[in-house]
C-alpha cells in the first residue's frame, strides 16, 4: 500500500535510495526491516500486511463481518499509466464514478472506518469510499493460506469527512487487495489487465495513456468474497486505523505480462563509471545485458516492492462472503 502525503502516492520499494541518474546505487530497505527504527508508527501492533490463514483452519472459521463492504467501479476514460520506478499506478480522476460502500457500527458521528471489525455496536448503516488510485506490489504483500502470489493489486479509497466526521479533511484510507496468480494460459488473463501491463512504460518516470474506456470492474475476481481486518499502510509512515479487504479469489496474470511488469519496475544500474563499465563487460560474456535507457541506466534486477508480513497480535479477521 502506498504512503506519503497527498492521496498517499509514494510507493516504497526494495530500493530505498537510488534511482539517481548517475553513479551506482545499492542502498536497500530490505522490504521494510529498517522502517521501525525510522518511523514510529511502523513499530505499531496493528501493522500490515499479515498472514491470512485458511478460513476454517483448526476448526475456527472466520466469523462473518455482519455487514459487507461492496465494490463496484465504472469505466475509466483514457486512463494514464504511470511507472514511478516502484510500481505502475493509475490515478483515478476526482469525477470518477464508483459505488464502494463500507458498513459502519455505532454512532456515525464518532465511528471510525474500522468499526465493523473493532466495535461490537450494532451496524448503523454504511458510508461511501471514493477510489483514488490503484497500483501493484510484486510479489504479493498478504500471504493467503500460505501462498504468496505473483502480484497484489491495491485499490486505494478514501472515506471523506462528510461521510464520517472522524475522517476529517484528509479522509481515511480503505484498501482493497486483489491477488494475481500466475497462469500459462493467456486466455485466462483479463483483457483489461493485459491492456494496462502492455501500455505500461518501461522507464521510471514515464507515463502512457490507454485510449478508450478501461473497465476497472474487470480487474476484480468473479467471486468477491473477502477477508477484512484492521491494519496499516504497508509503507512508511505505516499509519494504522486502515480497514483492509483482501479478496480470496485471485485473478490471473501470464508469465509474459509478469515479466514485462518486473522489468519495468526493476532496479537500475546507472553509469557511466569505470566500475560499472568493467562489471557489465564481464557480465556481457554470459548474458545479453538490457539496453541502456535514455538516462544512461540499465535494468539489472526484477523489481520488488513488498513489505514482510507483520504480527497479527490477536486482531480479528472477518469474512465478507459473496
Ligand atoms: Zn499498496
From TrEMBL:
Database matches in SMART domains: Carb_anhydrase
GO molecular function, one term: carbonate dehydratase activity
Cofactor: Zn(2+)
Keywords of this entry: Lyase, Metal-binding, Zinc
Entry keyword annotation includes Repeat: no
Record flagged with keyword Metal-binding: yes
Official protein name in the record: Carbonic anhydrase
Species classification: Eukaryota, Viridiplantae, Chlorophyta, core chlorophytes, Chlorophyceae
Amino acid at each position: 500500500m502506498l504512503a506519503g502525503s497527498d492521496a498517499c502516492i509514494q510507493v516504497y520499494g526494495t530500493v530505498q535510495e537510488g534511482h539517481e541518474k548517475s553513479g551506482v546505487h545499492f542502498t536497500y530497505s530490505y522490504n521494510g526491516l529498517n522502517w521501525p527504527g525510522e518511523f514510529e508508527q511502523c513499530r505499531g501492533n496493528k501493522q500490515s500486511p499479515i498472514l491470512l490463514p485458511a478460513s476454517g483452519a483448526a476448526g475456527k472459521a472466520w466469523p462473518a463481518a455482519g455487514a459487507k463492504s461492496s465494490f463496484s467501479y465504472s469505466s475509466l476514460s483514457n486512463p494514464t499509466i504511470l511507472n514511478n520506478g516502484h510500481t505502475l499506478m493509475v490515478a483515478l480522476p476526482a469525477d470518477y464514478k464508483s459505488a464502494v460502500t463500507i458498513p459502519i457500527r455505532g454512532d456515525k458521528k464518532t465511528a471510525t472506518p474500522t468499526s465493523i471489525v473493532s466495535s461490537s455496536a450494532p451496524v448503523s448503516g454504511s458510508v461511501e469510499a471514493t477510489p483514488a488510485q490503484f497500483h501493484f506490489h510484486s510479489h504479493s504483500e498478504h500471504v493467503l493460506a500460505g501462498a504468496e502470489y505473483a502480484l497484489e493489486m491495491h485499490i486505494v479509497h478514501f472515506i471523506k469527512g462528510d461521510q464520517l466526521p472522524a475522517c476529517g479533511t484528509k479522509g481515511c484510507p480503505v484498501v482493497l487487495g486483489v491477488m494475481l496468480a500466475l497462469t500459462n494460459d493467456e486466455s485466462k488473463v483479463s483483457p483489461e489487465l493485459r491492456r494496462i501491463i502492455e501500455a505500461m512504460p518501461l522507464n521510471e518516470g514515464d507515463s502512457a495513456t490507454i485510449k478508450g474506456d478501461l473497465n476497472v470492474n474487470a480487474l476484480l475476481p468473479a467471486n468477491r468474497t473477502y477477508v477484512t481486518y484492521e491494519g496499516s499502510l504497508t509503507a512508511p509512515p505505516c499509519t494504522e486505523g486502515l480497514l483492509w479487504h483482501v479478496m480470496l479469489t485471485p485473478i490471473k496474470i501470464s508469465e509474459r505480462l509478469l515479466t514485462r511488469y518486473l522489468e519495468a519496475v526493476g532496479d537500475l544500474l546507472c553509469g557511466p563509471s569505470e566500475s560499472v563499465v568493467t562489471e557489465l563487460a564481464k557480465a556481457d560474456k554470459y548474458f545479453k545485458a538490457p539496453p541502456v535507457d535514455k538516462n544512461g541506466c540499465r535494468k539489472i534486477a526484477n523489481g520488488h516492492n513488498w513489505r514482510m508480513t507483520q504480527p497479527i497480535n490477536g486482531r480479528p479477521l472477518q469474512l465478507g462472503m459473496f
